[in-house]
Amino acid sequence: MNTTTPFASAHKASTNNVKVNDTPLTFELLEKLVNEQKLNNTFLSIKAHGTIKNLQVRVAPKQKKPYPDFGKVAANQPVFNYENVTGTLVGDFGNDLYTGVMAGGWHIHFISDDRTVGGHVLSFDTDSVDLKIDIFDTLNLHLPTNNTDFTKHDVDFAGLHAAISQAEK
Q: Which UniProt keywords apply (predicted)?
């Protein structure tokens, strides 16, 4: 694989899932659902399709070598606001227990049906989406051990954790 994506989370559909049709949805309602279903300590993913009444996303501009650190990239991402856009929300959830492997909490992206709007979701609300929540019991982590940029990189963990925390707000 030859790619410059610094991190990706991917999965196949789970056979263990919850489906809810025609439901309102916000970050707060997702948290409520996780608590009610006692899913706090699991890995989850969502896929929801419908019209989003209010949507705020950020998008990282394309980067070039020498790549800036995550904090600088996150601090300079433009933010966009949209109303009544139809598309798909996809995202992952991990308890703070798993911070380091992933950012704790929800991490959601959006893409419009016409592919003109997208990005990392900062906020959203909708009256009605079709929602599927996949529940996972396994995590596989793949590291680029043949990439010398990765193996020789000296990570500033305190700075990285602070940057992730700031970016996920």
A: Acetoin biosynthesis, Decarboxylase, Lyase
Convert the pLDDT of each residue in 73-89 to its tens digit: 878 889 999 999 999 99
Query: What CATH number is associated with residue 103?
Result: 3.30.1330.80
Is residue 97 in some structural domain?
Answer: yes
Q: Which residues of 56-91 are buried (b: 16+ CB within 10 A; e: fewer)?
A: bbeeeeeeeeeeeebbebbeebeeeebeebebbbbb
Q: Is the pTM of this model over 0.85?
A: no
Decide if 8 is inside a domain.
no
Burial 120-144 (b: 16+ CB within 10 A, else e): bbbebebeebebbbbbbeeeeeeee
